[in-house]
Amino acid sequence: MTDTMITQMPKYELYKDSGVEWLGNIPHSWGILRLKHLCAIKTGDKDTVHRTDDGMYPFYIRSPKVQRINTYSYDGEAILTAGDGDIGKIFHYVNGKFDFHQRVYKFSDFTQVKAKYLYYYLHHNLAEEVVKLSAKTTVDSLRLPYLQNFYVAIPSDIEQLSIVNFLDDKAGRIDKAIAIKQNQIVLLKERKQIIIQQAVTQGLNPDAPMKDSGVDWIGEIPEHWGIVRFKNLFTQSRLPVRKGDGVVTSYRDGQVTLRSNRRAGGYTEAILEGGYQGIRKGQLVLNSMDAFEGAIGVSDSDGKCTPEYVICDPINNVNVSQYYFAYLLREMALAKYIQVICNAVRQRAVRIRYSNLAPLFMVVPPIKEQEDIVSFIEKESAKLDAGIKHLNEQISKLKEYKTTLINSAVTGKIKVTELA
Question: What is the CATH number of the domain that holds 125?
């Protein structure tokens, strides 16, 4: 599927200037109306909307999923989109009973336009045009007057139906192809995790004699591996911050690096850097708040980090690989063992400290085996990561094609028939 396929599709014989800069030319027979003339637009009521048993609203628009419930405040055909956050990016077409949040816009009571056609049309330029005019606060906020005045190109009823049927079919096929590739990514990630888990807990020799490790979350290990408490392997680092040190972050995928190496924005910045500590390349790092989600690794950068980080160095004369133990500790985290050793009222409040790690028994292969395991994991991970990257690139192209296809159909850049 390529943009070339779209350009080769039939076109209308005559076009006219829509009078709307971003819309450009539209088929000569099509009309132009503002959104307020096509439907009623309303937000939900925070006081009367029914909630689910867990206190969540049934439509959380920032998620692509829609949670249906038995109680409802509206029954009928409608389109829903977010009033802030991901405005103009996520839409839901609903025909049935539902409630909706006060920061969700509901389009209903359609005239001169079919709801499903408008659902597809709203994907075209709504985010760019409305956000441009809307007030800027901590999040982009969609203001009703600008939304009401959004221009919509209107084909005939028959053409609208043809466009809807065409897009239901084509977009549905694209979505299925994307779902297949996303499932393949899940399987590759699961395969990667299995490879890592087996390597760090069972070694690389499938014929090695095994013994019970005595460690709850590990089970059997090669007979020649040792069992040593963490405090006899690593000590907690307490380095000072140096002038010019950048902030280092430990991410859930196991990378520990300067924020500037990863992305520029999206972080919560501390007003006062009280308690910050120095961090150096090669140190074993755990983000105490996010370790249970896998935010454990070896720093590839010098810098500084918050006091919420546990930074560890091998004890003098102890021959260990920080990289091996980063993989081992990530496995401990992903096995949910951090929740077992750390008391917390809520799961999200779990924090792991050096004092939690210190008394724990760690499995310790000979140093050469540790290094071989790390090399094996990195080699196999690189292969799987390349496959995941390729699939993500294919998904991006499919999404781009889908967007272009929808935009071309609802603006008349291609002439659609039900059998197209």
Answer: 3.90.220.20
For the stretch 221-259, what's the b/e string if a residue is b when 16 or more beta carbons lie within 10 angstroms of its beta carbon? bbeebeeeebbebbbebeeeeeeebebbbbbbebebbbb
175 and 246, same domain (yes or no): no
Is residue 305 located within the same domain as residue 184? no
Interacting residues of 375 by C-beta distance below 8 A, sequence separation 6+:
none
3-state SS class at 183: helix
- Kindly state whether residue 40 falls inside one of the protein's structural domains: yes
User: Which strand (E) or helix (H) includes residue 341?
Assistant: helix 337-341
pTM surpassing 0.85?
A: no
Pairing state between β 248-250 and 284-287: unpaired
Do residues 360 and 215 both lie within one domain? Answer: yes
Domain of 142 in residue numbering reads as: 31-154
Summarize pLDDT for 105-129 with one digit per residue, the tens: 899 999 999 999 999 999 888 877 7
Sequence-ordered strand ranges (E) for 61-190: 74-82, 91-98, 104-108, 151-154
Q: Tell me: the pLDDT tens digits for 157-211?
A: 999 999 999 999 999 999 999 999 999 999 999 999 999 999 999 999 999 999 9
Residue type, 281: K
Contact assessment for residue 91 and residue 80, using Cβ atoms and an 8 Å cutoff:
yes
CA nearest neighbour of 124 among 199, 201, 219, 18: 18
What distances in angstroms separate CA 58 from CA 50, 73, 154, one per listed residue?
Answer: 8, 11, 32
Q: Kindly state the tokens that stand for 291.
A: 């370790």
For residues 277 and 222, membership in a common domain is answered with: yes
> What are the contacts of 268-273 at 24+ separation with CB within 8 A?
270/306, 273/241, 273/304
